[in-house]
Amino acid sequence: KREARAPELLLSMIASEDVPAWKATLFQVAAPWAEDVRLIDAAEVALSDSSPLVRSAAVQFIGAGPSDRGKLRPALQDPVKLVRVDAQWALAAELPRRSTERQELDNYLALAADQPVGRLRQAQLAAMSGDLSEAQTLLQKAIAWDAQSPAYHETLGLVLQQTGDNAGAAHALWRAAQLDTANAQSSFYAALAFAGAGQMAEAENALRTTVQRDADHHRAWYNLGLLLSQTRRTSEALTALTRAETIAPDQADYPYAAATIHFSLGQKREARQAAQRTLRINPQHPEARQIFSTLEAP
């Protein structure tokens, strides 16, 4: 598939590109593959590129991925403000509030504080710094100015989840999902929040909305299967779990969930087969091993 080859192709293009603006753009395009070790290595090399555009893009790439952000600390002293600010953003959670770097970032974000998107950025910074109350206040202000942008509602929902307010989070996330009818992830987030708030009918509706928007969203199919199982709709639950397993055959949770349902129904052959599929993926899966051992016992 072309998507599987994308990191290799991007790596080749980055290595051969001489125009700084285009090289920076390639790192931005590479964002979905931020876990690719080869691209991470290329971005680390680009941190010392002569062009601030490339250095900035490399900082953003590394900051958005799972790699060691400590490698971005030298960029805090970059002579170009664009690069410094990107590094400050990536390292915001560890910058002391009164540090020169944090103050520069705060001042930079304050320039757009009279716009909803500016408040959003300030709220994201507050959340990264652990000030969830301030983040909530800033997001509510952004929503008061622009109630039709889903990003503000979604971010508010994620912040409310961190505070433990699942009901409030579900309301905000579902509003985001309603405003962006093509976004399956927003409805999935809403489903998880509804479930956390004990609103299972709403959670089911949000999960069904998710798989309608993205039929390959295997985690939504899995969660839908679990929910249906909890409400004793085992046949539908197994259908949903089969769909999840078909889409993502490397996920041990999916056949294991099916094994537990078959086991509870006394369907020994089907439970054994599902447990076997689980163990092929994860031979050390303790619960699947227990089911299989129980079924194999004389």
Number of contiguous helices: 17
Terminal residue distance: 47 Å
Count the beta strands: 0
Strand percentage lies at under 5%
Q: Pick out the low-confidence regions.
A: none
Structural class: mainly alpha
- SSE series: HHHHHHHHHHHHHHHHH
Helicity level, as a percent range? over 70%
Mean pLDDT: 92
The shape is globular
Main sheet makeup = none
Question: What is the rounded Rg?
Answer: 23 Å
Could you characterize what this model shows?
This protein has 17 helices and no strands. The chain is mainly alpha-helical and 298 residues long. The longest helix has 15 residues, at 2-16.
Topology:
Elements: H1 2-16, H2 20-29, H3 37-46, H4 52-64, H5 81-90, H6 100-110, H7 116-128, H8 132-145, H9 150-163, H10 166-179, H11 184-196, H12 200-213, H13 218-230, H14 234-247, H15 253-264, H16 268-281, H17 286-296
Give a brief description.
The chain has 298 residues and is mainly alpha-helical.
Name the descriptors.
mainly alpha, 298 residues
